[in-house]
């Protein structure tokens, strides 16, 4: 099992490095290259440099909020059910 964990961890690390390099190139280096550069077609339009991370951030915050809301509701139901002893 340790070998598969190491393989999965290595794959996740390589994916994170690729995403970091791709996004850094897209956000920081691409604006300084001319429009005729061969790298320009490899990247989406510049407006998505902000939209994609913003969407991921909002989705993550909504997911965390829904998770906490669900936990709080289940705790409230459990406490209200435990308080009624017949």
From TrEMBL:
<protein>
    <recommendedName>
        <fullName>Dolichol phosphate-mannose biosynthesis regulatory protein</fullName>
    </recommendedName>
</protein>
<comment type="pathway">
    <text>Protein modification; protein glycosylation.</text>
</comment>
<keyword id="KW-0472">Membrane</keyword>
<dbReference type="GO" id="GO:0033185">
    <property type="term" value="C:dolichol-phosphate-mannose synthase complex"/>
</dbReference>
<keyword id="KW-0812">Transmembrane</keyword>
<feature type="transmembrane region" description="Helical">
    <location>
        <begin position="48"/>
        <end position="69"/>
    </location>
</feature>
<comment type="similarity">
    <text>Belongs to the DPM2 family.</text>
</comment>
<keyword id="KW-1133">Transmembrane helix</keyword>
<dbReference type="Pfam" id="PF07297">
    <property type="entry name" value="DPM2"/>
</dbReference>
<dbReference type="GO" id="GO:0005789">
    <property type="term" value="C:endoplasmic reticulum membrane"/>
</dbReference>
<dbReference type="GO" id="GO:0180047">
    <property type="term" value="P:dolichol phosphate mannose biosynthetic process"/>
</dbReference>
<comment type="subunit">
    <text>Component of the dolichol-phosphate mannose (DPM) synthase complex.</text>
</comment>
<keyword id="KW-0256">Endoplasmic reticulum</keyword>
<feature type="transmembrane region" description="Helical">
    <location>
        <begin position="7"/>
        <end position="28"/>
    </location>
</feature>
<dbReference type="GO" id="GO:0006506">
    <property type="term" value="P:GPI anchor biosynthetic process"/>
</dbReference>
<comment type="function">
    <text>Regulatory subunit of the dolichol-phosphate mannose (DPM) synthase complex; essential for the ER localization.</text>
</comment>
<dbReference type="GO" id="GO:0030234">
    <property type="term" value="F:enzyme regulator activity"/>
</dbReference>
<dbReference type="InterPro" id="IPR009914">
    <property type="entry name" value="DPM2"/>
</dbReference>
